[in-house]
Design brief:
mainly beta; 357 residues; five-stranded mixed beta sheet; single chain; seven-stranded mixed beta sheet
């Protein structure tokens, strides 16, 4: 820092410099601030100036350069709406800077101007501001039943004492907090999978979310048959194996103890009696394997049916006539025919016919 002085003998100059250093002073507390993005920062400041000087103007500036007039931040469009002077023209020079971003990372200094020609003083070095965001540090995946620790990290040690808040899928978590900026998940379950983010209590900024995947062995393995119901020789059948697992499981199909296929879907076309048997699927991934319950396919060999709808007799009205002997007969002829044809092993044909005259 420098003070304007008129030429004087060297010994007198040294004395004046010492006096000036004692009378002029700016104190910052703290001198380094680490602030969260979008937060407000308080720069605490006090100052003194020599007796006989009258304060004309006080202001804050940034990155002061020697022999260049320092700009007043309150007149800078980037700061004028965000900077609030909380001090006075006596001793207090504290300010508040709101909605800080990385663009605000500078050294900030307090400047005093008095009514004297040599009455200009800049408190250098000033307050160094660093602005940080938050990042969640976490493994990408964890195995079910294991413990995992997530850390909410900043690029610098936050100046203000902070209470961290954790979110999963944008919903706040209120349990299992370990330490000040860590989240400990114990005996992880599948329900713990999701997108995790963190924030500071009292601040609006929330970190970008990171995905935590929970891996586990196959569970809930089952087989479904389509179409369901009776299976006739010549039909086509599809078996579907469903399994809950992470990572996705590989599927194998068994008839009895023999492997017959792979993949979630096992299809059989043109069914025959040879396809009858007990089927099950096996689901396997890096964490384990599990079999489904067995299902039985029973193919009815050589059975064919042809059906005709039986006419609903309740909906038929028959008109009768009476002959000379007093007997009644239907007026006209009504024929109701029901045919059922069955072929068993290539034989046995049955025809039923009902006639009403």
């Amino acid at each position: 820092m420098s003070v304007r002085m008129s030429p004087l003998p060297l010994i007198f100059m040294l004395m004046i410099h010492r006096v000036s250093s004692a009378d002029w002073g700016v104190s910052y507390s703290p001198s380094h601030i680490c602030a969260l993005k979008n937060s407000s920062v308080i720069m605490n400041c006090t100052y003194t100036y020599p007796t006989g000087h009258q304060i004309m103007k006080v202001f804050w500036t940034k990155n002061p350069v020697k022999d260049i007039e320092h700009p007043d931040l309150s007149e800078d469009p980037e700061y004028s709406q965000r900077l609030q002077y909380l001090g006075d023209k006596q001793q207090n020079c504290t300010i508040r800077l709101s909605h800080v971003t990385q663009k605000d990372e500078h050294m900030y200094c307090f400047r005093i101007i008095t009514n004297r020609t040599d009455g200009k003083w800049t408190g250098y070095p000033g307050v160094t501001l660093t602005v940080t965001d938050l990042q969640v540090e976490s493994p990408e995946r964890v195995t079910e039943g294991h413990n995992v620790r997530l850390t909410c990290k900043s690029s610098c040690a936050l100046t203000d004492r902070a209470t961290f808040i954790w979110y999963r899928n944008s919903q706040p978590l209120t349990v299992r907090r370990d330490g000040n900026n860590q989240l400990l998940l114990q005996s992880v379950r599948r329900e713990d999978a999701g997108r995790y983010s963190c924030a500071l209590h009292g601040h609006t900024y929330i970190s970008p979310a990171v995905q935590l995947s929970v891996t586990y062995a196959p569970k809930s393995v089952s087989v479904s048959i389509s179409p369901s119901g009776e299976i006739v020789e010549g039909d086509s059948v599809t078996l579907n194996c469903s399994s809950d697992s992470n990572p996705p499981a590989e599927i194998s199909w068994f008839k009895g103890g023999t492997i017959v296929g792979s993949g979630r879907i096992y299809s059989i076309s043109n069914m025959s009696s040879d396809h009858s048997g007990i089927y099950k699927c096996k689901s396997i991934n890096e964490h384990g394997d599990k079999y489904s319950d067995a299902v039985t396919l029973n193919v009815m060999s050589g059975l064919r049916r042809i059906k005709a709808h039986l006419l609903d007799l309740d909906r038929v009205s028959v008109h009768y006539r009476v002959d000379a002997e007093g007997k009644s007969w239907p007026n006209g002829r009504l024929v109701i025919l029901f045919i059922s044809i069955g072929v068993v092993c290539g034989a046995a044909v049955i025809i039923k016919m009902f006639l009403i005259w």
